[in-house]
Amino acid sequence: MIKALRIDHRLVHGQVAFTWSHHLGITRIIVIDDKSANDDFQKMALNMAKPAGTKLNVFTVDKALERVEKIESLTDNIFIIFGCAHDASRFITAHPKFNELNVGGIAKKEGSRQFSEVVYLTSEEEADLKAVQDCGCALFMQQLPTSKREELKL
Amino acid sequence: MKKRHTIIATHGLLAKGLASALNIIVGELEDTTVICGYTTPEFDLTATIDTTMASIDASTSEVVVFTDLLGGSVNNGFITALSKYHFHLFTNTNLAVLMDYYITHPDLDEFTQKLSGDDFKPMDCNALVATMQNDLEDDL
Questions:
Q1: Which of A58, A97, A130, B59 is deepest in the core (most CB within 10 A)?
Q2: B39 to chain A, minimum CA–CA distance in Å?
């Protein structure tokens, strides 16, 4: 079952691989990110970053959508990580069955607006996330299981 | 079960640095004392240990100490203190060890066993990259 969805531009890193995964009892991490899925070296690096005993897949949005029913039928506790708002939006709007999305980290860019210490959105990213919200998926920001959970107000 | 009080003690600012990294990755550290040794000429390790131990209620808290280096003076000081206070002492501490400790709240005997495994050792990543087959499973 899918336990949580998170956008994190750092993909699989300490907070995700260790802290969240332990907190949620995760047995499989699925990275949905077109850029990483098309980069073999990056895929290998992600594979090295996964916690011991956890399975990892790296899919493009299209491949993840093709396999979404299979993913949902797995007995694993699954953590879905998107690398960017655009891929998250493409996945969730095409399969609008999720209640909430944790916007964990989106890097500061030229012309982006600050929403938290680690979340910066350009107008394109805001539009992507608005589309997520419009299909019934609530947006929130929470760095760690013990840190404050805030609603993301666009 | 007794609650735990943790002490991270090192030469210089390493202890503070470890705590700072843990704050980012794990979150707030509960019941933790950070000791940065020898950052001033007046630093007195024995007195610091005495003050720290006196501030912890040993009847309600189990004390766990992590130091930086076997044979270093910080660890030597805590070894001496083992004759005076009851606590569990781990050394050659690194970030991975502390992350596991704070995330999993392990039973200390099990933790000791785990420390001898491969998860916490320094690793040569170039060698790993060179030998790692690109065997990422695309299947579910």
A1: A58
A2: 29
**Which chain A residues touch B if contact means CB-CB below 8 Å?**
14-15, 18-19, 22, 40, 43-44, 46-48, 52, 55-59, 67, 70-71, 74, 144-147
Closest by CA to B32, choosing from B47, B41, B20, B45, is: B20
Q: CA nearest B33: which of B76, B73, B65, B74? A: B65
Inter-chain residue contact B137 with A14, CB threshold 8 Å: no
Residues of B in contact with A22 (CB under 8 A): 103-104
For an interface test with B, which of A19, A31, A38 has the most B Cβ atoms less than 10 Å from its Cβ?
A19
List the structure tokens of B69: 């280096």
ipTM of the complex: 0.82
Q: Dihedral through CA A150, CA A22, CA B128, CA B24, nearest 10?
A: 40
Range of the domain at A111: 2-151
Q: Do B132 and A47 touch (CB under 8 A)?
A: yes
Give the CATH number of the domain where residue A49 resides: 3.40.35.10
Best CA proximity match to A105, nearest among A97, A95, A96, A114: A114
Domain definitions of chain B by residue range? 3-131
- pTM, to two decimals: 0.89
Q: Of A40, A48, A67, which has the smallest distance from its Cβ to B140's Cβ? A: A67
Classified by CATH at the fold level, domain B3-131 comes out as Rossmann fold (3.40.50)
Give how many domains chain A has, as a whole number. 1
